Amino acid sequence: MTEKKPLVILTGPTAVGKTALSIKLASEIGGEIISADSMQVYRQMDIGSAKIKPEEMGGIPHHLIDILEPEEEFNVCLFEKLALEAMEQIYERGHIPVVVGGTGFYIQALLYQIDFTEEETDTAYRDKLWQLGEEKGNHYLHELLRKVDPESAEEIHENNRKRVIRALEFYENCGKPISTHNKEQRQKTSAYNSCYFVLTDDRKKLYERIESRVDQMLSKGLVDEVRTLKERGCNASMVSMQGLGYKEILEYLDGRCSLLEAVEKIKKETRHFAKRQLTWFRREKDVIWIDKQAFAYDEDAVLSCILENLRKKEIIK
To answer: Domain segments of the chain: what residues?
Structure first.
């Protein structure tokens, strides 16, 4: 029997503080970081994605950051392919991959090696749904999803057209809700000796940090960043421009709302996103919850707890 290779996952809701902790963790265990973030893959999209700066990386190699142009599409299939390639290189160097980011769907795909290739082959139905969304709006598509998969409709925001369409497409192709499929995938056994940590915090404090982060993004130049993308031809139909912060500022630049309205919408949608992230992680199995409040916000104590769990799993000695 082949020995399972080690895999460390550090995730949690947006703005909870994953990045700083991940650097300390990777440094401690001889790890390299693989980003599980659907926005940080894009070049020229630094402020709105809260992308780590090279000088903040502490010499730790980072993968899947700044690898695509904003015009290119990024999805779970491409993430899984690129992450697996990065992991092989990391193992060859004798290091441990540390997957860091808040996209639970991506993490699940990697952990259980879910094959999405078959359902990605036929784009006709997807194109039809996208056109329906253009003509009748996101709410119409979301109601279609609610009829066939109410559980997914509760989990996916109606403005996340890409995921709504993916869920409808899955139902069309497979004859069952994607929420049922996700439950089945969670019962699979991982090919890795993994530790899955979810960093969390008091909801009020998390929401305050989200609001503060959005304000900082504005002061750092988020509007100019989105304006530059718009000037190079990026528009709302592109996957990259559907990211939180980008779509709302684009609406402002297109004259569809005021800047104040755009900022309030970013804050509101980011809070909702954090809530949906936590809902996803609660459904995952074998998750180790790390509540920052329980450690009195002592990052060294949090790190010690993580290292202790890694020793128990014999991921480190």
So the answer is: 5-113+191-217+275-312, 118-181
